[in-house]
């Protein structure tokens, strides 16, 4: 029988060495800001001891970490866009874009066997598979470029392309696909695919709504932190320096799936009047011709919907309310505790019922505010490397308050920011000048990684439509004149006029090497 260890002592020694190595790794510049709720011993016991793999994901994670910290030190940023196409990703370094983003929404629309909206309902290995194809394309072009350059003299090389094709890839891990083991497998697939950073959010699986005028549903703080911890643990088991971007979708969220975590209690909404449940109101509404949103709006008013703290405020004197707040602010006080404090101070039972507003799908109603988002992001920060509060409508004050508040707790915090294509800045209080300087302005707040995630649904669609129209009209003559000729003119060529970036040379080189031919120019 093949034995792993000669004796128990060798196993003890190997385990101790593994623990020491993990502890030392956690002290490196790349890792030392992370606070884990588990020990190096727990991780070592979950590892394949004696079988070390260095993942490309780790190399790219360290590269991205350095890059983003340099931006942070300079107050600058990388501005990138989402793509699922390796051929597009290959063009990005030519313009100085420093990272490639693989969007879940785009993968769902363009890469899934059965397309759909941004529900993260595609197979869990879909986004990792796109990352893998892009990484392989980067490796191919890097290899091709090296081989091509090595065919030329030092002098000739000065005019040849010398691109860093290995842009770190950032990818969308959505809500981690639900279960703890599902999340672990997803994180593992991303590391194996070569991603530099993934983001995990606090959205509820399967409950994203788009057009019915409702906000998002988030999970409890505990569930969100568990997701992040699961990813961190997976990276640690794999020994990977892959980065974790803690994305939080609480901004403008309207529902929460559970009230299990007292940290969420200040923001859960309840009925303060004696009314029928929202579900009952919906059933009754079906008998009339009122639509869902009207029934909801009317029910909220009838129910006197508010947070528990606001309910206290509505019955307390100013003085009573301020002593109540001094007992509950900046502490974790569950609803039960809040009720007892309010009763002691006001002498009254506060009428508040958070069960009545529950949706047919079970969620509770939730009052988002910037403080709620800050609370979550501060709790999540120690588990990850970068923070992103996803905003549909990034208004100036919220942007400022959010970033400065998180930085009060974590002064060097790195942030990400996503530009949603639907948001019109100039119609929402930004001047044209402010839009121009927006990326640079938010970089000063620490937003070092900025992305237009779904460019393909706007930019690529626009180009494709314009191309199709012109091609239909102008035919092949138009194509030769307006597409092929400029594309050829822009294509880098060698001194013999041959295009550099296709890979023909590399294929020839394989033949040459196998045939024993030395094609490297000797300096
Ligand atoms: C980043 C995102 O998760 C994506 O899938 O690309 C989307 C993009 C969008 O809706 O604009 C998101 O931000 O939810």
Structure in a nutshell:
This protein has 523 residues and is of the alpha/beta class. The chain has helices spanning 8-25, 40-44, 56-74, 86-91, 104-110, 126-150, 154-157, 180-193, 221-238, 278-286, 292-303, 308-315, 318-328, 335-346, 370-380, 396-409, 432-444, 455-490, 504-514; strands at residues 78-81, 100-102, 169-172, 197-200, 216-218, 243-248, 253-256, 269-270, 306-307, 364-365, 386-389, 414-418, 447-452. It has 4 domains: 1-52; 57-247 and 391-453, TIM Barrel; 269-365, Arc Repressor Mutant, subunit A (Orthogonal Bundle), CATH 1.10.10; 454-490.
Explain this structure.
- The chain is globular.
- The chain has four domains: 1-52; 57-247 and 391-453, TIM Barrel (Alpha-Beta Barrel), CATH 3.20.20; 269-365, Orthogonal Bundle (Arc Repressor Mutant, subunit A), CATH 1.10.10; 454-490.
- It has helices at residues 8-25, 40-44, 56-74, 86-91, 104-110, 126-150, 154-157, 180-193, 221-238, 278-286, 292-303, 308-315, 318-328, 335-346, 370-380, 396-409, 432-444, 455-490, 504-514, and strands at residues 78-81, 100-102, 169-172, 197-200, 216-218, 243-248, 253-256, 269-270, 306-307, 364-365, 386-389, 414-418, 447-452.
- The strands form three sheets. Strands 1-13-12-11-6-4-3-2 form an eight-stranded parallel beta sheet. The protein has a three-stranded mixed beta sheet with strand order 5-7-10, with no helix packed on it.
- By secondary structure, it is an alpha/beta fold.
- 48% of the residues lie in helices and 9% in strands.
- The structure holds alpha-methylisocitric acid.
- Residues 82, 103-105, 118, 172, 390, 418, 420, 453-454 line the site of alpha-methylisocitric acid.
- Alpha-methylisocitric acid binds next to helix 5.
């Amino acid at each position: 029988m093949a034995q792993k260890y000669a004796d128990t002592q060798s196993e003890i020694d190997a385990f101790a060495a593994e623990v020491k190595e993990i502890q030392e790794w956690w002290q490196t510049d790349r890792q030392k800001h992370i606070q884990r709720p588990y020990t190096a011993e727990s991780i070592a016991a979950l590892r394949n001891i004696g079988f070390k793999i260095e993942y490309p994901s780790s190399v790219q994670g360290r590269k991205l970490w350095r890059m983003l910290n340099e931006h942070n030190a300079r107050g600058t940023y990388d501005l990138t866009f989402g793509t699922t196409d390796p051929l597009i990703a290959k063009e990005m370094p030519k313009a100085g874009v420093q990272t490639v983003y693989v969007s879940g929404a785009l993968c769902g629309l363009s890469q899934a066997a059965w397309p759909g909206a941004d529900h993260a309902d595609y197979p869990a290995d879909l986004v990792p598979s796109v990352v893998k194809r892009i990484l392989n394309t980067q490796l191919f072009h890097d290899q091709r470029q090296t081989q091509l350059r090595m065919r030329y003299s030092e002098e000739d090389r000065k005019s040849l392309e010398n691109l860093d094709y290995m842009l770190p890839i950032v990818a969308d891990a959505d809500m981690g696909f639900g279960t703890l083991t599902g999340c672990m497998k997803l994180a593992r697939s991303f590391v194996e695919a070569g991603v530099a950073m993934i983001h995990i959010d606090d959205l509820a699986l399967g409950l994203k709504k788009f057009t019915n005028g409702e906000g998002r549903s988030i999970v409890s703080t505990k569930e969100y932190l568990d997701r992040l911890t699961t990813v961190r643990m997976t990276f640690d088991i794999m020994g990977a320096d892959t980065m974790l971007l803690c994305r939080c979708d609480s901004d403008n969220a309207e529902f929460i799936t559970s009230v299990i975590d007292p940290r969420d209690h200040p923001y859960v909404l309840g009925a303060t009047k004696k009314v029928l449940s929202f579900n009952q109101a919906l059933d009754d509404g079906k008998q009339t011709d009122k639509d869902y949103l009207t029934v909801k709006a009317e029910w909220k008013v009838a129910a006197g919907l508010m947070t528990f703290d606001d309910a206290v405020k509505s019955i307390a004197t100013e003085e009573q309310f301020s002593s109540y707040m001094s007992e509950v602010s900046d502490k974790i006080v569950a609803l039960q505790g809040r009720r007892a404090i309010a009763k002691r101070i006001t002498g009254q039972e506060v009428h508040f019922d958070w069960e009545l507003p529950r949706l047919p799908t079970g969620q509770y109603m939730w009052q988002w505010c910037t403080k709620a988002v800050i609370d979550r992001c501060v709790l999540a920060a120690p588990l990850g490397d970068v923070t992103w509060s996803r905003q549909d409508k990034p208004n100036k004050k919220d942007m400022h308050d959010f970033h400065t508040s998180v930085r009060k707790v974590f002064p060097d915090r790195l942030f990400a920011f996503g530009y949603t294509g639907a948001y019109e800045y100039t119609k929402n209080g930004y001047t044209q000048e402010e839009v121009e300087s927006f990326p640079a302005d938010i970089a000063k707040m620490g937003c070092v990684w900025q992305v237009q995630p779904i460019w393909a649904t706007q930019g690529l669609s626009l180009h494709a439509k314009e191309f199709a129209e012109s091609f239909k009209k102008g035919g092949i003559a138009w194509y030769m004149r307006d597409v092929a000729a400029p594309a050829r003119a822009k294509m880098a060529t060698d001194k013999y006029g041959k295009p550099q970036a296709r890979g023909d040379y590399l294929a020839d080189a394989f033949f040459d090497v196998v045939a024993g031919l030395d094609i490297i120019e000797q300096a």
